[in-house]
Amino acid sequence: MLKSKTALVTGSTSGIGLAIAKALAAQGANVVINGLGDKDEIEGIRAEIETEHGVVATYDGADMLKPADIARMVRDAAERFGAVDILVNNAGIQHVAAVDEFPDDKWDQIIAINLSAAFHATKAALPGMKKKGWGRVINTASAHALVASPYKSAYVAAKHGIAGFTKSCALEVAQQKITVNAICPGYVWTPLVERQIPDTMKARGMTEDEVKRDVLLAAQPTKEFVTPEQVAAFAVFLCSDAAAQITGALLSMDGGWTAA
């Protein structure tokens, strides 16, 4: 479906981003992955994508805190592949603390990586999409783009910002065959989430199942995690012709969290 297209996925060396990169590659798209991690492990991921799907996969270590780095990454991808047809703004970080105890540097980092980086990447990619008359921008938002939780002020603010940015950007390019949407997952089962469980079990005196059900999934009526592969499949659908009239949408994928 996406043969001859090129996708750039930020924050894609693990978790949701990696699942999206693999799913787009499975549909024939060349992919640029980006993110942190061990150099050899990242090279293994890159090579695996190429071997398994018969596409070209490259890695760019652009720092999502640096606008110039982000613009350069998009420019390099466009120069190598001709254009960035699909941009997935997925990079994100989290920190939990009360507002009056929230470290200033953590606030600045979360806003920069979770919100401003999406602006800088989209700004750099849109001219090429406009020139080709086709493009897909997919922002990984969160249920926290629609509702709030305590002690996550920076994250919630950034994700609410992504919601507004998605809508505004979509309206600007609505007549240019470019769609801009945000996927809003609830808790997704990733290594990052999995690593939180032992400490929570110890701190709260709970079993693993109790932590999953009563802490992590307390807000999700299905009491089931979203999987990275489910988010990735949704992203692939948004790149299809069938989704051409879906734009400016905040698409919940949260086990019913935001239905209440």
TrEMBL record:
EC number(s) from the headed UniProt entry: 1.1.1.30
Keywords for this protein: Oxidoreductase
UniProt enzyme class: oxidoreductase
Domain of life assignment: Bacteria
GO molecular function: 3-hydroxybutyrate dehydrogenase activity
Pfam family, one: adh_short
Protein family membership: Belongs to the short-chain dehydrogenases/reductases (SDR) family.
Annotated protein name in UniProt: 3-hydroxybutyrate dehydrogenase
Organism, scientific name: Hansschlegelia quercus
